[in-house]
Amino acid sequence: MQTPVAVPDGLAGPADLPGPYEPRSIVVLGSTGSVGSQALDVIEREPGRFRVAGLVAGGGRPDLLARQVERFRPEVVAVADERAVRAVREAVGGVPVLAGAEGVAEVAAWPCDIVMNGITGAVGLTSTLAALAAGRVLALANKESLIIGGPLVKRAAGPGRILPVDSEHSALAQCLWAAGPDGYDPGAVRRLVVTASGGPFRGRTRAELKDVTPEQALKHPTWDMGTVITINSATLVNKGLEVIEANLLFDIPFDRITVVVHPQSVVHSMVEFVDGSTIAQASPPDMRLPISLTLGWPARVPGAARPVDWTAAHTWTFEPLDDEAFPAVALARHVGALGGTAPAVYNAANEVCLEAFLAGRLPFLGIVDTIEAVVGEHSVSGSVESVEEVFEADAWARARARELTGA
Ligand SMILES: NC(=O)c1ccc[n+]([C@@H]2O[C@H](COP(=O)([O-])OP(=O)(O)OC[C@H]3O[C@@H](n4cnc5c(N)ncnc54)[C@H](OP(=O)(O)O)[C@@H]3O)[C@@H](O)[C@H]2O)c1
To answer: Whose CA is nearest to atom 22 of ligand 1?
Structure first.
């Protein structure tokens, strides 16, 4: 077993991070998105503790980015889409605005204490690697970069350098801390139990999923998130990605990671220990909690989110996942176990199929069926030695998925 990248050795957090109550500077990548704007909410609430050093966005919402720059006065800004740069520059006089993928990578490596990567999709890999290569502590929402980069990202990170933003992995890290007075003890862990809301189509059979529409898939029952992760939650691809993420972050093998459906989304995940004890982390669904824990790591940010109201009656339910209706998790386990370039192919095919579904070119069930077909055709390169290899597999999978979806 290797040292996990997500759990600090002891409870102090990475040694080069200022103490949890000392001022910390943060670069927020994907600041205009769901995770990014909630990270800014947390930062704004604790002005003595957190300061924004840099902001990055795609360029789709230049007005929002300009307002964020006005409010947080970062040292630097980058916009991925060069066409949007001019509008942002005009709106934010005085703050340098870098352009394109290179500008994004430069801000990802900008001097700061924590880089929050809230970019969506495989494109976030370059930023993850840039931040880690620069020696930053990485608060990781962009799970895709870890999943597709796998060993490359882990090597660049080292023990305790990645702070999980995903609520499930934040919960797992919190439960693992609780394992003993000295913190994480891998020998004490029997199983990670990752919870899933089940998405908007929970309880439906495969036949009942045939005609579901993008509008229905975009109505998540418990979380308010960006488009990609919302559709991924409906197909359960998101849960598949999270199983691979859990394996990579905590070095627990796939056969000891269980997915359980918990429609209330209050228990965010659990760890079962060798003595039969299970520790769970519970809080109403609100990403500001796991986000705040990465910024204050390993200390908590008071008032970051509303707690469970223990004076009211609650019912929490847990049920097994229906792998027949939602085969995405089993397929993810398969590609995760294959390793190498397989997870990059799974993710890239999904990103293309998801767009095809939203555009009305692919039925809902076609998303995972097509991913499976693309994964099946891919000759896996067993180990990933370079980022070029990852992006080559990613490009191949996108091209093949486009052919199969008629794009
Ligand atoms: N949302 C959640 O509650 C949640 C929970 C757990 C994990 N996550 C993970 O967090 C990540 C972000 O999700 P989200 O829901 O916040 O996504 P989102 O709302 O779609 O936001 C994505 C952000 O990335 C920016 N962006 C897009 N392309 C970019 C590029 N090429 N370079 C730099 N920035 C780019 C977007 O900018 P524009 O606005 O300019 O397009 C936006 O700021 C995903 O990996 C997701 O799986 C999200």
So the answer is: 33
